[in-house]
Automatic annotation (TrEMBL):
InterPro entries: FkbM_mtfrase (IPR006342), SAM-dependent_MTase (IPR052514), SAM-dependent_MTases_sf (IPR029063)
Species of provenance: Salmonella enterica subsp. salamae serovar 48:d:z6
Cited NCBIfam families: fkbM_fam
Record's protein name: FkbM family methyltransferase
Gene3D superfamilies linked to this entry: Vaccinia Virus protein VP39
Domain Methyltransferase FkbM: 68-106
Record's keyword terms, sorted: Methyltransferase, Transferase
Pfam families membership: Methyltransf_21
GO biological process: methylation
């Protein structure tokens, strides 16, 4: 049984507990989003456009929506909510074990959770766990 770890994190100015498993894939997404900040837009050529669009949506009295396909355990969702605090995030994650942690890690936040997969093909598919990190497949 994989040990469940927890640590404190600040999201939108509030302290909360973040949960993860002591496995390579969870450590990798934590590093990717919390340490390396790979989803930060500041280094992108289009950063000014993204920021302007976010602000124009807010100025129109609307709520920006961010769709996170493959939200894993929620590190990217928390990053998006920190970067765009007035946005609503739709987090899609097909893997039941990841979805359980995603649910815990985003509880009480402006997030809609969907326990499904995303594909370019219509219809029902089966989620296959290959046993390798980051290797779930829809077939």
């Amino acid at each position: 049984m994989t040990q469940l770890m927890q640590g404190d994190i600040t999201v939108q100015g509030r302290q909360r507990i973040f949960y993860w498993r002591d496995i390579r894939s969870d450590r990798a997404v934590i590093r990717q989003n919390f340490i390396d900040r790979e989803y930060a837009t500041g280094m992108l050529i289009r950063d000014a456009d993204i920021t302007a669009r976010y602000r124009s949506i807010l100025e129109a009295g609307l709520t920006p929506v961010i769709v996170d396909c493959g939200a894993n355990i929620g590190t990217s969702v928390l990053h998006f909510l920190e970067a765009y605090p007035r946005a609503h995030v739709v987090a899609i994650e097909p893997a039941p074990d990841n979805f359980a942690l995603l649910s815990r890690n985003t509880e009480g936040l402006n997030v809609t959770l969907i326990n499904k997969g995303v594909s370019s093909c219509a219809g029902e598919m089966t989620l296959v766990d290959t046993g390798e990190p980051f290797a779930y497949r829809l077939t």
